[in-house]
Amino acid sequence: MDISSKKLPIILIIVLLGVLMFQIVTNNADRKYIDAETCEIWVEDSLTKKPRYLNEFDQKCLDFKNLNP
User: Fold this and answer.
1) Is this prediction's pTM over 0.70?
2) What digits encode the pLDDT tens for the residues 5-64?
3) Is 57 left (phi over 0), alpha (psi -120 to 50) or beta?
4) How far is CA 69 from CA 3, 16, 19, 37, 62, in A?
5) Strand pairing report for 33-34 and 40-44
6) How far from 32 is each of 11, 29, 67, CA to CA, in Å?
7) Beta bridge partners of 34
8) Residue 65 has what pLDDT?
């Protein structure tokens, strides 16, 4: 396949759209949230749709809370 062929841009666009769709589909499962009051990190349980706390705290959130008592 030559670089100047008309099929190459179409193939590249299809491949890049496939990669983008794959990233969108797999990204939703790894979404982490931060509780605004306690700065604890939690994820949404996929079965019950309830928060599941990970017993981890976001350091940036804790630093911000310490600056604004």
Assistant:
1) no
2) 888 889 999 999 999 998 887 766 557 788 888 899 988 877 787 888 889 999 988 888
3) beta
4) 61, 47, 45, 12, 11
5) antiparallel
6) 35, 9, 24
7) 41
8) 83
Q: How confident is the model at residue 68 (pLDDT cuts 50, 70, 90)?
A: low
Q: Exposure pattern of 9-22 as b/e (b: 16+ CB <10 Å)?
A: eeeeeeeeeeeeee
AA letter at 59: Q
Name residue, tokens 């350091």: 59
Amino acid at 63: D
